[in-house]
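Field: sequence (string)
Field: structure_tokens (string)

Example rows 1 and 2, in order.
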Amino acid sequence: MQKLIVASNSARRQQLMRDAGFQFDVHVLDVDESLDETIATNDAAEFLAEKKNRAYRSVFANEIILTSDTIVIANDNILGKPKNEAEAYRMISSMSGKSHEVISGVCISGHDREISFSDITVVQFENLTEEEIRYYIKNYQPYDKAGSYGIQEWLGMIGIQSIQGSFYNVMGLPIHKVYQILRSDFGISPL
């Protein structure tokens, strides 16, 4: 039986896979995550997941590889991971009182096939005060998160008014779709 490799340094993605009952190895390679300027904003996450998967495929030719990338789109701009406190503050402020999209791209490949997809969740924030935003950044330091926040953390608890789509997608992995594809297309199931 082929081994499942979760090619992600994200503790949240690894935890979601464990919580769903999957057994897997984690491998992390340094992959260039630059985007081609011709890529449409809504296709960026899936493009990056595919790019990462192909880099891993060259090393792990006979395994099943799962790669993923999550982006946040607010005001038609991709919000990546903030570099510092000021950037995190600008990102969160730009989403305050508005909705934004969280898109996770996933690519799963075996030696004879590759399946990729995107999942979109629309998140509506309450109006956030400067004090709330600064408290969150100081206490949670969201520098490893696209869009500068984690839905499962304090800001998500007090600031998210509603979501349309998968909660887990906002955490970084649409686990419901990953489960279905691994089970039906790759024969991997925790059952």
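Row 2 begins here:
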Amino acid sequence: MFSHIMVGTSDLARAKKFYDPLMATLGAGPSMVDGHRMFYMHNGGVFAVSEPINGEPCTHANGGTIGFACSSPEQAKAWHDAGVAAGGTSCEEPPGVREGGMGKMYLAYLRDPDGNKLCALHRM
């Protein structure tokens, strides 16, 4: 359904320091940098981070969340811990199991240094 997901950054070097350890917890290698943007490729998916090409300031979505699939609660927790250690901010409730209409899930939420909201999800 998706070819890729891209978020903006105002500082590509800072974003790389944040996302490289975060994506490593999911099994993705360091990013491939291509000028003003970088790409992580893993399991057929592409996640990209880019400085805005129109020269306008980077902004984050209000109400938007990008979710990353995890193979276990432990991987989701490691993802969250790596993100906080690399300069991200924990948001929403602390990482843990939640139950709702979509069933039982382990969720961990972060905001990256540019304010983009990210989620690690493991369906129980």
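free_text_note (row 2): The chain has one domain: 5-53+63-123.
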